User: What shape does this take?
Amino acid sequence: MSDRNDDPVERIEAAAFQPLAADSAAPKRRLRPVAIVAAAGAVLFLLALAFLLTARSVEIDVVAEAPVAIAIDGFALPFGQRFLIRPGRYPITIGAEGYEPHRSTLTVGSADTQRYEVTLKPLPGQVTFTGLPAGATLTLDGEALRGAEHSDNPDRRGDAAPARALAFEIAAGEHTLRAEAPRYLPLESTIDVTGRGVTQTIALELAPAWAELTVASEPEGATIAVGDEVLGKTPATVAVLQGDRELRLRAPGFAEYRATLAVIAREPQDLGTVTLVPAAGVLELTSRPGGANVTVGGEFRGQTPLTVELTPDRAHELVLSRPGYRRYRDSVTLAAGATAQRDLRLEPRLGEVVLEVDPPTAALRIDGELVGTGPRTVALPEVEHEIVASLEGYETLRRRVTPREGLKQLVTLNLKTEAEARKARLPAELTTALGQTLRLFDPKLAPRNEFTLGASRRDPGRRANEVLHPVRLERPFYLQTTEVTNAQFRLFQASHNSGQVQGNSLNREQQPAVQVSWQQAAAFCNWLSRKEDLPPFYTEEQGIITGFRPGAIGYRLPTEAEWAWVSRVNGEALQRFAWGDEFPPTSPVENVADNTSAYVTGRVLGGYEDGFVVSAPVASFPPNHHGLYDLGGNAAEWVNDVYVIPPANSIVKTDPLGSPNGDNYTIRGASWALSKLTELRLTYRDYGQRGRDDVGFRIARYAE
Assistant: This one.
């Protein structure tokens, strides 16, 4: 750069730094007090301004009846019950005299004005109840008062001790109080407890639950008792609880006086003077035997053993009587309050009883007492006695007898074996659920139970299948008196139709059911057994009869031997025809092919008319000697046995049932379609399996 004036150039250069010397003479600056105060005031102003700008107004409303002290753990400006305080959570304690302290957390929110309400809980009050009788108990709001109670009597301690005053700490407020004490009416009231430690006295007056009872007696000194409580001796005034009470006065030698009183609390009664009656004498009577009737002065008093009260100091007629014994008479006098015992033995009136016993080894008991075995004569009182004869293996036999003096009586005791007795109890007739009647037959009790089935070769009309062979019947059995009717069979098979022949119906209700196969007849028996809860006799598989159970007592078809026995055996004789031994019959005795049946059967029993072209209603003709109908006509009958021709002169078979199953089954008896001598004989046998218009059946069953 050139200098137009050509003056020399002045350069500016940096100078080296030199610190001021410590002892520099330059003067020092000092802060003045006013400035400091001003600065502090400014800071405080700023802080106060910041507090006022951020603080919230919180009103603390405390419900209490005493001056309140509020302590907040944090900065707060109080203005009475209103405080300025910044938002946040602060522990707070509020207290007042007589109240439980309140400790909580004060939460200050963002609202400008806020309210915090607190109701202080008053402390319990000290309540003393006075005027209580001894043993009183108090219940407050349904709960017993306990724990803080005490008595104003310093000599008493504990809940059980009587008290006149009771003190308790009780929460402030309104309460329901109930006071109870023995012999007083309960008292219930409402009390208002101030609380806050304030002492209150409440006087309670319980009304007595008794009344005063004044009573005297003649003589004096009688014990006064109400219920089981003894209250004193007459004359006296006693306290008796209210209600219906039984008053008793007792004195030695006198009858107890009893009276029922209606006692009303606080209403006294004066009963005056009660005259006691001398006590009755007491007679304790026993007799041998016991159970004797007792009369005193003609009045019945009961049976011995007996205690009888008698009017003292006078004679009483005493009479004892018992059936079979002589009457006892006596006179009894007892002093007042005296007790006497009499044990009297009655003299029996005896009658003789002759006991005949079979078997003679049977034991005899009379009225439960063993008197020996075998026949004997005994003298017994004239009352009814039970005589029991027993022997092992025999059914016990009981008889009752009333002896008579001077009259000898005979009692026969024939014991039966248990089996005989069991059979004797079997009913003579049974009625089925369908109304059929079955009669009982016990071949062992008949004159003849062993006989020969079949017919001799010399018997006119005999057929080859009527081979003679012996049988024996021992099991008792029941047999239907008639053949099964259409009405009865249709209860089993509703669709059954017996049909008709040449316009003559076989299908009427009381005609025998025909067109029934052997299988159907056996199935009917099983159906009826189940209907009466009896074990079925026949075994079945898928509705087919496959065999039988010999021991079952359900319904079945009669065996061939049973059918022959009831039709032929008459006492010791064997009948040839249903009506006897003569042929032909001279009067209508069975329904067979008679003169009117020629156009139906093509064959008839010449000169015979029974009044029916085809089958007749069952039991239209007289029964046979066993009370059974239609065994010789009407419908031929299925029997249980599989059809076989037996071997000649075989061994005796007992209660034969035949084979369990087979192809054909035996048919016995004549029918409305038969007329020849061969067919009308009772030994005539036929066979088949399918139904026919002249074959029906009747039912049977074993008795046991």
Helices lie at 33-54, 418-424, 486-490, 518-531, 560-568, 598-601, 677-680. Confidence is low (pLDDT under 50) at residues 1-17, 19-26, 148-161.
